[in-house]
């Protein structure tokens, strides 16, 4: 199927790629066409050695209002083509993205849109952005791993509060409970996310960042001795990699490091 490039806009800012979900008339509601375009752009960004970090935001006044209601209306009787497209690749694809992925949440984020935001490594937002799980208010349940992710971010009781009530949380509370990592005025949101991503792109080893992301997710389901053993092995490998030499030399010479691009995974 030919993708519609207008559904997700791509804009380069040096080594940072800005992706903008672009269905502003629908608060960027998630549908299969948008999903396929977004995931394809992530694939391209991962393969592009010049892209070292990605920021994702929403066009207009919202980030992503969740699954498009027109798609939800077909849930009880989905056509075979829709089922085939949904199975084409896992919806949790962003979790496997090896480069930093930062969400700049500029407005309402709900349901599946919130899940996609949680799949990002960091979430920047505004004081007035609205967060909601929404599922129980649509007769649904926590989907696509949110019941696994959310307690690890905010704790069990807070996760149950957000999932059971489907209540709206604004940016300040999102920061306080751990849903968000930065709260900024709306006009500063995307620039701040791009600036943060640019710092990672310029000063941090792509290989090290990819390994650290893998470490964090693996450690979430392991005990401390296992995590330490894995870290020791990975550290030995790091010492044998050229980035370790470059990291020390660039520090001693007080210059920007010239780390190698991330190779194929």
Automatic annotation (TrEMBL):
Checking Pfam families in the record gives: ECH_1 (PF00378)
- UniProt-listed SUPFAM superfamilies: ClpP/crotonase
Which InterPro entries does this one have? ClpP/crotonase-like_dom_sf, Enoyl-CoA_hydra/iso, Enoyl-CoA_hydra_C
**Source species, domain of life:** Bacteria
CDD domains for this protein: crotonase-like
Q: Which residues form a coiled coil?
A: none
Q: Which family does it belong to?
A: Belongs to the enoyl-CoA hydratase/isomerase family.
Q: How is this protein named in the record?
A: Enoyl-CoA hydratase-related protein
What is the originating organism of this protein?
A: Catenulispora yoronensis
């Amino acid at each position: 199927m030919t993708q519609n490039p207008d559904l997700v806009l791509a804009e380069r800012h040096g080594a940072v790629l800005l992706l903008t979900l672009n269905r502003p008339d629908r608060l960027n509601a998630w549908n299969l066409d948008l999903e396929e375009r977004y995931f394809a752009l992530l694939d391209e960004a991962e393969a592009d050695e010049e892209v070292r970090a990605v920021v994702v935001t929403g066009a207009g006044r919202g980030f992503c209002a969740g699954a498009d209601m027109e798609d939800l209306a077909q849930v009880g009787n989905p056509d075979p083509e829709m089922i085939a497209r949904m199975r084409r690749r896992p919806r949790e694809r962003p979790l496997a993205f090896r480069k930093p992925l930062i969400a700049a949440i500029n407005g309402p984020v709900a349901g599946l849109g919130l899940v996609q935001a949680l799949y990002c490594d960091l979430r920047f937002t505004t004081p007035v952005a609205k967060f909601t799980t929404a599922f129980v208010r649509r007769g649904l349940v926590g989907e696509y791993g949110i019941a696994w992710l959310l307690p690890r971010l905010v704790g069990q009781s807070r996760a149950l509060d957000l999932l059971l009530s489907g209540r709206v949380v604004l940016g300040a509370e999102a920061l306080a409970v751990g849903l968000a990592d930065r709260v900024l005025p709306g006009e500063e949101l995307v620039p701040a996310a791009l600036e943060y991503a640019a710092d990672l792109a310029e000063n941090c080893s792509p290989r090290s960042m990819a390994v650290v992301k893998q470490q964090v997710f693996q450690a979430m389901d392991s005990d401390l001795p296992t995590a330490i053993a894995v870290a020791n092995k990975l550290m030995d490998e790091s010492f044998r990699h050229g980035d370790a030499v470059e990291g020390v030399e660039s520090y001693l010479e007080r210059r920007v490091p010239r780390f190698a691009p991330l190779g194929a995974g």
